[in-house]
Amino acid sequence: MTDPRSYIQTILPRNTPVAKEGRAFAPANIALCKYWGKRDEAFKLPLTGSLSVSLGRLGTHMRIRPADRDSLTLNGTEQAPASAISRRLFGFLDLFRDPGTALAVDSKNTLPTAAGLASSASAFAAAVLALNELFGWEADSDTLSQLARFGSGSACRSVRHGFMEWHPGERPDGSDSFATSLDADWPEFRIGILTVSNAPKPTGSGEGMKRTRDTSALYRSWPDQVTGDLPLIREAVRERDLNTLGRTAEHNALAMHATMIASWPPLIYWSPETLAALHRLHALREQGLPVYATLDAGPNIKLLFEHPSAHDLLREFADLQVVNPEEF
Ligand code: 2P0
After folding, report:
1. Fewer CB within 10 A of the terminal residue: the chain, N end or C end?
2. Residues 182, 325: contact at Cβ < 8 Å?
3. Cα of 297 from ligand 1 centre, angstroms
4. Which H/E stretch holds residue 24?
5. Pocket test for ligand 1, best of 30, 145, 205 (most atoms within 8 A of CB)
6. Average of pLDDT values for 78-98?
């Protein structure tokens, strides 16, 4: 196998006309069937498939243009070239540009900063979509998804709106590992973002998934969990079956957290407020409200429900931010 840059150069067209700038928006996404664990670190290839829904207008707007020197402005503030965020972004852009090409990047997140939603997926997807315009690649959605994957695995699910399935693929170069749209619409479906804690997470996802894979005996059961859950979730989206979707997605997220907790040193992403909110949610469900939860590598909760339940949920969780994935 080759290195990421050499591989990418083989799939991009050459000598295309460079525009004055490239601009794009990419939405954040929440996985309903989670990605947790890689089969290849450098190519960011997952061990299993995953399935997500996008967050409408919440995501990243990015503008990229040729310049005299590299610069990154994030939400209006220029970032130091040596900062972790600048190094990560320009390291990613190096995969695509000719040596010596400097770029000015202006990035704005519409994600609520305190909500603990990862902006890396929408940021890397927006970067690839903006580069596609800037460099005139005219690449199709599968290729753009593949390219975004090199920034952050989950970014491959953010190149389009809606329900996206990331096919894990089998090839060592990852040419069959990208996300495609389910082309499903579900006008009543809602995500509720419940921010229970703003504390920064102690262990990033990349490191966390590696530790889980290396040290958690429970992780051995994870591929089987996904094999069972993913087709149920895909079908539930197509059928607009909230109960099957919610049950399976919540079970999938909790099973992922079980593998994390069984790592060493343990990965406990929850805070006491996480558990309290889950218990409240379960009580509401017992009272007949169709609402489910999913959680990522952090303490905050995303509720899964349909529009008619919004009123009751907002009464119960005053700070709930309700997102309609089809509004963008
Ligand atoms: C997901 N997460 O499916 C899962 C659930 C977190 C928990 O994708 O190492 O930031 O860059 O491929 O994409 C977060 O992982 O990790 C993630 P890398 P990424 O949404």
Report:
1. N
2. no
3. 8
4. strand 22-33
5. 205
6. 96
